[in-house]
TrEMBL record, chains A, B:
Protein name in the entry: Putative NAD-dependent epimerase/dehydratase family protein
Domain spans labelled D-glutamate N-acetyltransferase-like N-terminal: 47-124
Database matches in NCBIfam families: DgcN (NF041892)
Leader sequence residues: none
SUPFAM superfamilies reported in the protein's UniProt record: P-loop containing nucleoside triphosphate hydrolases
Length: 337, 337
């Protein structure tokens, strides 16, 4: 079940850029899938797409309207409903990353049924998973892991997919969170799966494939985050990665939303190998991705260089310096079979 | 929200003992909460309680009818519905461990509403959890962990509660699965919680308490089980145990329902300390519990003795030899404050 593109990005009247973060991520990675943005008067966000209404978007070929916004509580404001109904009536599917389900709003559910259109609530998988089995399966997998949440695991995975494809590798990004699902048109929000099925959902997401095919799996949480380590471990076991990249944000002083200190990159490498070898005995780290957004250029460059020497691993900021060094390492360590 | 006792155990017409395992567990640990069993003609199970109908049970003071059975698919057979409705009409609450929700059957939902009675679907928590925080909180906690699923973690925890209370300790069993919830009247099926909230649910289950109070937490899965390790880790982080007991079944050759070999007891101790220290830096193993059901008496005794010497830890089969040695160790290592 894939979300069809091109997209119309619905921004409504969200107050600021932060509330439109999901939409911005889609534009960053899939600009060619986006026809336009739909904004209400007073909208404080701008995805730098042509402004258009439902009619113009459909006329231009839009197939899905994406409610790519976040708001406190994940609710769906009452005054957005009529535009969503209008989109369904005009022939588009609608996809949302809000906590509230589109299908739980009667007017929206009725409009979808009336028009035979699909509603995607990407935080809530409709897939029925089985429990993970841990059996080795063909195909190669690379997973991004983190010293913390929100350190660039999704961006690193997307940058890897792009660079791997540029080098002629057969690589597919595998989304495990809502923004990633919009960016790839499919995936599963693993943190919204029932706990028994975390590794099973990860196995479903990264199925048996050609021996030279790479799944590039978006990581979640951190093995060292007291809120989410269970999700991280289930994803690690289900994805059974051959390789992983550690993502890190060097200026953070405590783990996101809790008071725990950040682990070192070395601790993350050790714990990932220690726990990951259960389903892939040959798991290994192939690179380090540092989010240097808050550092100056010289400082960022020095940090990457020092880290590369310390760990003997290609180290980069994907946005600033690209991930070609990591892909180089990957190709060397995993020659085509 | 506690399930009120005394109970009437509904066995219906399940074919054999295995299907009534939940009911047997309740009788094993809470015989004094059970007034009787309700069986249909052809029932192949017997919990060794007086047979009685709904009317007799209510007259004797029964407050909840427990559907303490399992069946393929976790469905609720059509011909059980009228007895459940009868129980609600007679003034009892009804609790079920089936996958299907009692409240999803219209006749049952209506009877509950009509009579102001409560329905408990213990596989599906109605509690709203928050994400875990990992903050240290007062009170002591002991968790049972396993080399595999179904190796005696619940029985060990219940035996510990009983023996700790006998030694005058203030101890409460904390249920994390359906049978345990019936046995203690409360708890949470952690494997049925949404993945994001595993450690949060475990924190809710084992809240801040008197510094000398012990939560005796029923473990789930195994850090070495590729299907469920995420649940195990979330529970470990949320419970932040001071102490743990490793449970083991010595005759098993592969992990339950998968092809992975069993880890050694040593590997489980090491991994539990390695991962558990994130939320409790002083976590330590205080004993080993071996399910020797399939061994002869001399063999069982020898295995416990040899294991105790190898690990330097009290080692026992809770059913066969009791857990006093482990409680002794616990008292020595954690003197009252």
């Amino acid at each position: 079940m894939e979300i069809a593109h091109p997209y119309l990005l619905f921004l409504g009247d969200v107050p600021d850029d932060l509330a439109a973060k999901t939409a911005y991520g889609i534009v960053d990675w899939r600009r060619d899938w986006c026809l336009g943005q739909l904004r209400f008067p007073g909208c404080g966000a701008d995805a730098e797409l042509p402004d258009m209404g439902v009619g113009a978007a459909v006329a231009a070929g839009a197939r899905t309207m994406i409610v790519g916004v976040v708001n406190p509580g994940g609710v769906l404001p009452e005054h957005w409903v009529s535009t969503i109904v209008e989109a369904l009536d005009a022939g588009m599917d609608v996809a949302s990353g809000l906590h509230v389900r589109l299908s739980s709003v009667p007017a929206i559910a009725e409009a979808a049924a009336r028009n035979g259109r699909r509603l995607f609530d990407v935080r809530h998988s409709t897939e029925r998973f089985t429990t993970g089995k841990g059996t080795r399966r063909p195909g190669r997998r690379i997973l991004t892991v983190g010293t913390d949440c929100s350190v660039g695991k999704k961006y690193t995975a997307l940058a890897l997919e792009k660079a791997m494809r540029a080098r002629g590798l057969d690589a597919d990004f595998r989304a495990t969170g809502q923004t990633g699902i919009f960016i790839s048109g499919r995936g599963v929000s693993v943190d919204a799966v029932v706990a028994d099925f975390i590794s099973g959902a990860a196995e479903w997401l990264t199925p048996a494939a050609d021996p030279n095919h790479w799944d590039v799996v978006e990581g979640q949480g951190s093995l060292f985050h007291p809120s989410f380590a269970g999700v991280t471990l289930g994803l690690l076991h289900g994805a059974q990665p051959d390789a992983f990249v550690v993502c890190h944000e060097p200026t953070r002083t405590s783990m996101r939303n809790v008071s725990h200190p950040l682990p070192s990159i070395r601790e993350v490498i050790e714990a990932t190998v220690y726990m990951g070898r259960l389903t892939n005995p040959d798991i290994r780290c192939v690179g380090i991705s540092i989010n240097t957004e808050k550092l100056g250029d010289a400082e960022a460059r020095a940090l990457c260089k020092d880290t590369a020497i310390e760990y003997g691993l290609p180290t980069t900021d994907p946005i600033r310096f690209g991930v070609e060094g990591i892909v180089e390492r990957l190709i060397r360590e995993f020659p085509a079979v």
